[in-house]
Specification:
The structure is a single chain. The protein is α/β, with parallel strands linked by helices. The chain has helices at residues 14-23, 39-49, 58-62, 79-88, 103-116, 130-140, 174-190, 277-291, 299-320; strands spanning 5-10, 29-35, 53-55, 69-72, 92-96, 120-123, 146-154, 194-201, 213-220, 225-231, 239-246, 250-254, 257-260. The chain folds into two domains: 5-124 and 277-297, Rossmann fold (3-Layer(aba) Sandwich), CATH 3.40.50; 129-271, Dihydrodipicolinate Reductase, domain 2 (2-Layer Sandwich). The strands form two sheets. The protein has a seven-stranded mixed beta sheet, covered by helices on one side. A six-stranded parallel beta sheet has the order 3-2-1-4-5-6, sandwiched between helices. Strand 9 and strand 10 (225-231) form a beta hairpin.
């Protein structure tokens, strides 16, 4: 593998810039190509981060011999198809969550990754946040058994805007995007697959065409349960908040912060080399490429999450009828 590792990043919006900030902190990495929908805005972002090549075509970047790997921060509906294009071009790929919004497409990405042997991972950032890593290590050490997770994912997004409040060209989705974080994390933290799942959703938004409120209930094979509430209607504290109820303690994770059930702060600053989940995610991608191994949150590891989501989508469709 070349040194530096040369990366193309597709999607120069709010989340793409989080990856650009993270990649600057990783030794031996160079972003050589930036792909965006609007050429002028993409040029502005490229100039800010010192990226030499700018295009609106992923195919143009994939054809470049100086691109070793690609990070996809594009609209959900493009993820699986673009991940396949990267693998077919011989490039390692990290695709932002979700891997897919059609299960068959996600399965095809996993199949193609196995054929090529390239590194392919998905941006399930919660696996990398130090707060959740701290919990995971306690579970693995036999010091904690998760009995229940209570999770709230709340945003105020009644118009089609991104995290920066800018107009979005595609529609976000509570089930296939935001619920994917928790469905995957629940199974990962429990070390046990989801064996039961149920979902309910509120009315469909007349303009956006999606449900703005949703509730999920999950059960793992080891008996642990999870309740997930999601809303785009919440005009209050925003983000996702995780309450872990275990046999030896209760813990509340708010992104990279962790407190116990009595609101006493737990120091997670030494869990990993950074407190930034996106940076840790990107570090894992780079390390897996250099070491020739399967990454944490590989497309194969996260596929069971999408199998659960597919079942929930079919259940919601049947309920609507």
């Amino acid at each position: 593998m070349t040194d530096p590792l040369r990366i193309a990043l597709a999607g120069a919006g709010a989340f793409g810039q989080k990856h650009l900030d993270a990649l600057k902190l990783i030794h031996g990495v160079e972003v050589v190509s930036l792909i965006g929908r609007e050429l002028d805005k993409t040029r502005e972002t490229a100039a800010k981060y010192g990226v030499g090549h700018v295009t609106t075509s992923l195919e143009e970047s994939l054809a470049r011999p100086d691109v070793d790997a690609v990070i996809l921060c594009t609209p959900t509906q493009m993820h699986a198809g673009q991940a396949l294009a990267c693998l077919n071009a011989g490039k390692h790929v990290q695709v932002e969550i979700p891997l897919c919004d059609i299960l068959a497409e996600g399965r095809e990405v996993v199949r193609r990754q196995r054929e090529t042997g390239l590194v392919a991972m998905c941006g399930h950032t919660r696996r990398f946040n130090p707060s959740h890593q701290w919990i995971h290590r306690r579970v693995q050490a036999g010091e904690l058994r998760i009995q229940q997770m209570d999770v709230q994912t709340y945003f105020f997004r009644r118009t089609n805007t991104n995290a920066l409040g800018q107009a979005r060209s595609w529609t976000d989705h509570l089930l296939w995007h935001h619920a994917a974080h928790t469905v995957d994390l629940f199974a990962h933290q429990c070390g046990s697959p989801v064996v039961q799942a149920h979902a309910m959703q509120g009315p469909i938004h007349p303009q956006l065409g999606i449900a703005m409120d949703m509730s999920l209930q999950l059960k793992a094979a080891n008996g642990a349960i999870c309740t997930l509430s999601l809303s785009f209607n919440n005009d209050g504290p925003l983000g996702t908040f995780f309450r872990y109820i275990g046999d030896t303690g209760t813990y509340i994770a708010r992104y990279d912060d962790l407190v116990d059930g009595k609101d006493q702060k737990i120091d997670v600053s030494r869990v990993d080399v950074s407190m930034n989940g996106i940076e840790l995610q990107d570090r894992e991608f780079v390390a897996a490429i250099r070491e020739g191994r399967e990454p944490q949150a590989s497309v194969a590891q996260v596929l069971p999450c999408y199998e659960v989501l597919d079942g929930l989508e079919r259940q919601l469709g049947a309920d609507a009828r």
